[in-house]
Specification:
Shape: globular
Order of helices and strands: HHEHHEEEEEH
Strand order of the largest sheet: 1-6-5-4-3-2
Structural class: alpha+beta
Number of strands: 6
Largest sheet: 6 strands, mixed
């Protein structure tokens, strides 16, 4: 398990020069993205089934600036802020490696899309996507 101080050091390194770490840019959550990932209009039963298929358990560290979630696979930083007078949540997802986290995806939720439910749905989608990609890479390299 990653040391919380090392997680904080990685976070500071990523946030200091985000453009350097995320060449593809920040993904903005909007209606088109939610539709593309089929994250809208799920019944409570469908939501429970999805959660059972992809359970992610995290240790949680809270500070005034952010919430840090981490386990043996991921480090996630959820940063609430106000951008141009609009409440916004910036979420950084890093895959844990042997030495330190490797930033994979950054997404931003603002305005009507900046709800805890949407942030968590998109987070779960991207966590699953990262795991699927890593599994594909591993199968190709064998």
């Amino acid at each position: 398990m990653m040391n919380p101080n090392k997680l904080e050091d990685s976070y500071k390194e990523f946030i200091f020069d985000l453009a350097k770490w995320v060449q593809d840019g920040i993904i903005h959550v909007d209606l088109a993205l939610l539709k593309k990932f089929d994250l809208l209009n799920k019944t409570p039963e469908e939501e429970k089934e999805i959660q059972a298929q992809f359970p992610f358990y995290f240790h949680v560290l809270e500070s005034n600036e952010k919430v840090t979630l981490f386990n043996n696979q991921f480090a996630v930083w959820i940063i609430p802020k106000v951008v141009d007078e609009t409440p916004t949540t910036l979420t950084l997802i890093a895959l844990m490696t042997n030495t330190k986290p490797r930033l994979e995806i950054v997404f931003s939720s603002a305005g009507a899309y900046n709800t805890p439910k949407n942030v968590l749905k998109v987070l779960r989608h991207f966590l699953t996507e990262v795991l699927d990609t890593e599994e594909e890479i591993a199968s190709i390299s064998h």
